[in-house]
Amino acid sequence: MRLFDTLAREIQDLSPINGESFGFYCCGPTVYGPAHIGNFRTFVVQDVFRRALELGGTPTKHVRNLTDVDDKTIRDSQAAGKTLGEFTAFWTEKFHVDCAALNCLEPHIEPSAVEHIPQQVQMIEELIEKGHAYSAEDGSVYFRISSYPEYGALSHLENRDLDLGHTQSQRANDSDEYEKDSVADFVLWKARREDDGENYWSSPWGEGRPGWHLECSAMIREYLGESFDLHSGGEDLVFPHHENEIAQSKCSCGGDFAAHWFHITHLLVEGKKMSKSLGNFYRLGDLLEKGASANAVRFALIGAHYRKQLNFTLDSLHAAGEALDKLHKAERSLAELAGQDVAPSYEELIGLEDKGLFEEAWIGLNEDLNTQRAIGAIFGALRRAENDTDPLTQWKGLHFMLNALGIELPEVMEEVAEDAPEEIQALAVERWEARSNKEWAKSDELRDKLKDLGWLVKDGSGDYSLEKL
Ligand code: AMP
Ligand code: ZN
Question: Fewer CB within 10 Å, N side or C side of the chain?
Answer without folding.
Answer: C
